[in-house]
Amino acid sequence: MLEWLRAQFSLSAEQWQRYAPGFTRLEVPARTLLLRENDIAKRAFFIEKGCLRVWFNNQGKDTTFQFFFEHQSVSSFESFRQHTPSLFSIETIEPCVVWWLAREDAYRLLAELSELPEMREKLAGMMFDRIRHYSEHCLSFIRDTPKQRYQQLLAKNPQVVLRVPQHYIASYLGISTVHLSRIKR
User: Fold this and answer.
1) Which residues of 55-83 are buried (b: 16+ CB within 10 A; e: fewer)?
2) Domain range spanning residue 17?
3) Does 61 map to a domain?
4) Mean pLDDT throughout 85-105?
5) What pTM was computed for the model?
6) How many structural domains comprise the chain?
């Protein structure tokens, strides 16, 4: 995983030696909170193995709004950057192996990476992809029926249906598990 991360950051072996010790491997069981809503994010996570969900408490109900899988990164970036309470929780769905990087180490790494034009472009692309996902998901609640949202999920991210429990998928789609069962039939 560390070699994959090094390749993602486009760092030489010498540069990587300064940052590699900052990455910590963590094995966690399913249903482990890596970040609790309203806590300040102090770590960025990189997923080696497993599936995570991002959710918030909506009047006593969990509302899932994104899933993350192998070779993706996740954090409450607003909280991480601004040192403000996180708007959501990050929780493992499956047993996971993640690598985390502390805020201070991440900022040192980003300072060096910002000098590399191709890395600036890659980081900007990652942020725009995340914003696009949120925008599409939000608009789908205005524009699409629950059945259309489910069909889009199958088309764009079929691994969610294969690996994520039905109640999280239903929450993500904004429907009950009973409604999801009807749609699937």
Assistant:
1) beeeeeeeebbbbbbeeebbbbeebbeee
2) 2-116
3) yes
4) 95
5) 0.88
6) 1
